[in-house]
Amino acid sequence: MSARQYDVVLLGATGFTGGLTAAHLARRTAGTTVRWAIAGRNRDKLEAVVADLPGDGPAIEVVDVHDPEAMTELAGRTEALATTVGPFAEHGLPVVEACVRARTEYADITGEPAFVADVRRRFDQGARDAGIRLVSCCGFDSVPHDLGVGLAVEHLPSDAPLTVRGYVEADARFSGGTARSAVEAIASRQLPSNRVEGERQREVRSLPARIHRIDPAVGIDGYGVPLPTIDPAIVLRSAAALDGYGSKFRYGHFARVRTLPVVVGGLAGVAAFGALAALPPTRALLDKLLPESGEGPSAERRARSTFSATFHGTGGGQQVVTRVSGGDPGYDETAKMLGEAVLSLAQDGPTGHVGAVTPAQGLGTGYRKRLEAQGLRFEVLTSS
User: Are 167 and 314 in the same domain?
Assistant: First the structure.
């Protein structure tokens, strides 16, 4: 047993995704010796969360993320800390700093490129010195893509140039917190780099961002439309740091769109949203139109939601198609992804990578097995 009071602390449990993560952790820790707590600013709201959980429930810790001493003190009492408190550009850095000071493992569900870049720039070396992992993007951004590509390259030659294209499709709704994080990312105008330097001596780059008809070998029809999300940057960082990604590595990240009219309409919608988010007056209007943070779709709507991410890898005269799929991506599955990430940090031991790391780096193949046990599907569809 650790000398620390807790194995796991979940920060932000009173939010929509945080509450789902708390429920997942309650199910996973029932009947075990895992010591855990939920944390936030409002004791009454935290008590309401615990009242809805099965069993005895977690302990409660009241803390303000913008109180450095209190945040560091709490981080120092747990082996691993997970946070859902966003937008992360506004609320995330004090939590990361507290974990580095306290030598505490850390996981979040951000999808904000500017925040992830700040964490690497400001805290990577400190985390390396402390021997801890700061694992960002432990939700739908970017676990299915990072681990799905990792599964694909396992079935390709490690000594040949490799190319992987990912095609993402989802039927789901998003919460106010997720929408506001997207606005923050667009307004910052910081898009992920198309080239990544890493520990391995291989060239790692993005594929050109072009609309194209999907190769019939992938087994799905339609068009690939470039997705300007953080996911390709996470995949490329893993490719630059881990073995098995070939002598060179290229990755392209796309939405799967079935017909050309949908492609045109989707592009117009994204352009309009980006224009509104980039200008302060219209961004203020957009904020008023978005749902409040902490709101999310009903259980019935989430039960109907699905996602799939299909990956086509080629290299050395071979090809493979893998797929990661599951239920509601932004909430139910993200809660599983974050919950299993923080449990992995607390229970599974080191992966050989410390500092500001990706899910594939920081959590390893054992994390994939955890997610499979919780119902996410990792499949090799074809390999030749």
Answer: yes
Q: Is residue 1 part of a domain?
A: no
Query: Residue 380 carries which side chain, given as an amino acid letter?
Result: V
**Contact indicator for 155, 313 with CB cutoff of 8 Å:** yes
Both 293 and 324 in one domain: the answer is yes
Reading the block at residue 379, the tokens are 């499949």
113 and 35 co-located in one domain: yes
How far is it, in rounded angstroms, from Cα 235 to Cα 47? 38
pLDDT score recorded for residue 258: 80
Q: Are residues 148 and 259 in the same domain?
A: yes
346 alpha carbon, distance to own chain's centre:
18
User: Which range of residues forms the domain containing residue 147?
Assistant: 143-329+376-383
Neighbours of 121 (CB within 10 A): 10
- What pLDDT, in 10s, does the model give residues 182-205? 555 555 544 445 556 556 679 999
Instruction: Look at residue 197 in the predicted model and tell me its pLDDT.
Output: 59
Instruction: Please indicate, yes or no, whether residues 155 and 190 belong to a single structural domain of this protein.
Output: yes
CATH number at residue 128: 3.40.50.720
Q: 227 and 131: one domain?
A: no
- Taking residues 290-297, report their average pLDDT: 67
Would you state the structure tokens that stand for residue 339, as one six-digit string?
């919950």
User: For residue 96, what are the CA distances in angstroms to 88, 112, 199, 384?
Assistant: 10, 15, 23, 43
pLDDT at 292 over 70: no
| Same-domain status, 358 and 345 | yes
**pLDDT confidence of residue 201:** 72
Do 214 and 166 share a domain, yes or no?
yes
Terminus-to-terminus CA distance in the chain, angstroms? 47
Peptide bond into 87 cis (omega under 30): yes
Report the C-alpha gap between 230 and 63 in whole angstroms.
29
Tally of domains within the chain: 2
Among 21-25, 97-101, 278-282, 346-350, whose mean pLDDT is lowest?
278-282
What value does the mean pLDDT take over residues 262-283? 57
pLDDT, tens digit, 9 for 90 and up, residues 119-146 = 999 999 999 999 999 999 999 999 999 9
